[in-house]
Amino acid sequence: MALVLAAALPLAGCGGRAATHHKPGTSHEQATGTSGTLLDARDETGHRLRELPAATAPTVRVETRPDTEGGWNVHLTVERFRFTPDSTGGAALPGRGHARLLADGKEISRLYGNWGYVPPGVRTLTVRLHADDHTVWAVAGAPVQAAVRLGAPATAPAAATPTATATATDAGTAPATKAPPPTPTPTPSPTADTGRTVTLSITGKTVQPPPSRIELKKGERLTLRITGDRADTVHVHGYDREVPLSPGTPASLTLTADRTGLFEVETHGSGLLLTQLVVR
After folding, report:
1. Can you say how many angstroms the Cα of residue 51 is from the centroid of all Cα atoms in its chain?
2. For 131-165, what is each residue's pLDDT tens digit?
3. d(CA 55, CA 16)
4. How does strand 136-139 pair with strand 48-51?
5. 3-state secondary structure of 166
6. pTM of this structure
């Protein structure tokens, strides 16, 4: 009888699922997992980064669409990652966890699935992938995330319209025509030439040079020059920048790396990964 009771004791209190919560007195970020390297660096919300090689790290893309009652509906596309709400607070395991939404740099909610909602008034939305222990999955010291500007297309035309109106109003006056000389302000474009230029070519499903990571400092200018053998569209995720490709004709896309994180550059039609931008 004593032997039977002794054998039964370890089963007492077992809820059917192995406990994954961290040890008493140990923070989420210190919970031990089987994946990645825990870094001392933290994101702006105070969570430590958990480093992974780019080849095995998860990726995330974000798409938004206006909601009929205001705000934005958000859809995430993830790779090498699945949402695990049942084990949140447990150890960091490969390809598991949840996402967090940051509105204009401030965390507003978590996502435990592919769909979410952002209220009106948000200008920039950042989606960041976290492990179950709440650490941030990272590559090359930068969080795995995607960012998008909400309502940016409407802002650009609005800024352009006053310029057109002013030109039309003063069109009959010669001095007013000389007013455009302020347009030399775009002379900072030479500064853009001082930025980095990366040349890529696509033949069939082969990219040269082979896909890798381009390390950038925040604020640095980058020009991508791409030549493909078929019509397609190149898209820079997180920056929502696109450029069409025509067979045999080089296309250029210039951007300022003003957001930190890991961003993929790919073709829409053929779904080829061309390169990854790591901005720090």
Report:
1. 16
2. 999 999 999 999 999 999 987 543 333 333 333 33
3. 35
4. parallel
5. helix
6. 0.50
